[in-house]
Amino acid sequence: MKFPLGSSSLNWMYGRGRQSAAIRNLETHNPTSTSHPESDSDLLHTADSYSSIMAIPSLSFSRPTFAKLSPHPYLLTNLSPQSPSTKPSRTNGRAPHEARPVQIHTSSLSHAHGSALVRSGNTTVVCGVRAEILPVTNIPQYRPRSSLQPSTTASDEAADRAELKAYDLLVPNIELATGCAPQFLPGVPPSTLAQTLSTRVYSLLHSCGVVDPKSLRIWHDPSAEAKKTTGEGDASMQDDNDDDESEAEPPQLMAYWVLYIDLLFVSFDGNPFDAAWTAVMAALRDTKLPEARWDPDREMAICSRTRKNPLDVSRGGLPVACTAAVFQEKEYAEAGGLAGENRHWVLLDPDRLEESLCRETVTMVVDCGGVGGETRIRSIEKQGGTVIGRELMRGFAGVAEKRWREVRDAMQ
């Protein structure tokens, strides 16, 4: 059977034939051979022909292929351009201190008490808040409260935070959906990253005091119910009720609202904590709980179908997370751990490729909504590396303030 030869096969064969002929011609002019060239020009002409034929053609790859084969040189080439007039940029075209624009959509889920969808670049996360009633009789080691007055002193606020944490009234859970990134496979247990993100969100919820515990309490006030049942009676009955006010039972706390905060990453392209925390804050600000009262006859909480109260998150302000990663010119094995002899770039809001190449990250949570626009640093987390010190941390605080304003405008 004969196969037709394409142009590539003919070129390869023709080139090989020329190569063999040139080699034979060069061998005839070899000084160690018995025959000698007629002139030096013939020898030079033959050598030039041989070198031109044996030259290996240059290979060129597309940008995605280059990024997969050599990710570190690929990012380094973009951050350190050869021309001084060209500004350094990342693989996605952003400047080192430029974050991806954030988009926030609230009330995305119809069967949740509060929800939000947050998209930052190609990272997309959905957050839903579902509230359930927990009677105090189902809480182990419950310590009764007997006051309807709000918390005013610092000790009262500390007790409120301890109450939220002791009774597990805030339960965040993060899931990385199959297909949101190549490394997340189906049929596997929750990844370490998902568990770490859930723990970080849980700790920040309690340390910042985002949720006011009084909006989660369900009271039973016998005196208020007695006034409702009595109504506008005759004067004598009203006087009897006034005399019995001193002997009325004090209000009792009978149940709590427990908030289950579930997050699902639909698309994962780096910096998951900032997106997750933004989704949590947006969903909590969107949460509305039904008006509930305790029915002593049924021994259960009764919820209104029409009246709903927004969740009080004003006391905790609006903390916003801002994450950056440090990219070094030399890889860690080559640099020997010496950061002083190694150029570096601080990349704000890193994507998935940049996170895989950076071994040092810092996350700062700030709240610029204080009195007079005062900035409060609520949390700082740093992992790995020795590049970011005090000076860089001060400069990073200004970058976090700018990010806070961007997220605030997106929520409004």
From TrEMBL:
GO terms for cellular component: cytoplasmic exosome (RNase complex); nuclear exosome (RNase complex); nucleolus; ribosome. GO terms for molecular function: mRNA 3'-UTR AU-rich region binding. InterPro entries: ExoRNase_PH_dom1, ExoRNase_PH_dom2_sf, Exosome_comp_Rrp42_subfam, PNPase/RNase_PH_dom_sf, Ribosomal_Su5_D2-typ_SF. Its main location: cytoplasm. Residues 77-98, 223-248 are annotated as: Disordered. Residues 98-290 form the Exoribonuclease phosphorolytic domain. Residues 237-248 have a biased composition (Acidic residues). Residues 77-92 have a biased composition (Polar residues). The keyword Membrane does not apply. It comes from the Eukaryota. It is found in: Cytoplasm; Nucleus, Nucleolus. Keywords: Cytoplasm, Exosome, Nucleus, Ribonucleoprotein, Ribosomal protein, RNA-binding, rRNA processing. One of its GO terms (biological process) is U5 snRNA 3'-end processing. It holds the Pfam family RNase_PH. PANTHER family: EXOSOME COMPLEX COMPONENT RRP43 (PTHR11097:SF9), EXOSOME COMPLEX EXONUCLEASE RIBOSOMAL RNA PROCESSING PROTEIN (PTHR11097). Belongs to the RNase PH family. This is Ribosomal RNA-processing protein 43. The lineage of its organism: Eukaryota, Fungi, Dikarya, Ascomycota, Pezizomycotina.
